[in-house]
Amino acid sequence: QQQVKQSPQSLIVQKGGIPIINCAYENTAFDYFPWYQQFPGKGPALLIAIRPDVSEKKEGRFTISFNKSAKQFSLHIMDSQPGDSATYFCAAQRGGSQGNLIFGKGTKLSVKP
Amino acid sequence: ETGVTQSPTHLIKTRGQQVTLRCSSQSGHNTVSWYQQALGQGPQFIFQYYREEENGRGNFPPRFSGLQFPNYSSELNVNALELDDSALYLCASSGQGAGKFYEQYFGPGTRLTVT
């Protein structure tokens, strides 16, 4: 059972475009939703995260939109650049001291110059 | 402030052998989690260590075991290696204090190849 479903699997946009990556979760006990960026051969890097008590969070060119009732959240990358080309993972975590991340399968983003 | 470090970077082992991977947590962090990332997949949680004790485990067999040391560094041990154990093994550390354990910071990983 896949607890966090991510789409699309891959995405190609032109420089300056706004790629949108979507995730859906099932477990309503999740209360922390981060996005990670991973370049080939590297570990995932924490990009931005949101809690379910807010509907949107912005950090620089990255925005998370969160819809608690639909159990969905998405990542928007404003003014995308070729350097943003990477694999993006959404994740969800349940609260408490035993929190572990449950990841989506990833979206490979390619930003064309 | 130093980030999460892992060693070795790459490792090639033969089926049936045993392997030990090492992780140093980020300065100020007391919780270490290990993840397995197969090619083209998202990381999967193996287990977590907090104050030198296992603090949660994913769906991995007992031949995956670990340790955390007083300085919060950690080891992942895998016995009786199988071909399917070939993956990138990631260590993530998180801090103490309200809400801090949520933010998990990953190391660069150890690429394990089992032949």
Main sheet specs of chain B? 7 strands, mixed
Please, what is the average pLDDT of chain A?
94
- The portion of residues forming beta strands of chain A comes to over 45%
Order of helices and strands of chain B: EEEEEEEEEEE
User: Which protein chains are joined by the largest interface, and how many residues does each one contribute?
Assistant: A-B, 24 and 26 residues
- Residues in helix, % of chain A: under 10%
Low-pLDDT residue spans of chain A: none
The ordered string of helix (H) and strand (E) elements of chain A is: EEEEEEEEEEE
Runs of chain B in which pLDDT lies below 50 for 5 or more consecutive residues are none
General form of chain A? globular
Strand content range of chain B: over 45%
SS field, number of helical segments of chain A: 0
User: What is the helical fraction of chain B, as a range of percent?
Assistant: under 10%
In round numbers, the mean pLDDT of chain B is 92
Distance between the termini of chain B: 38 Å
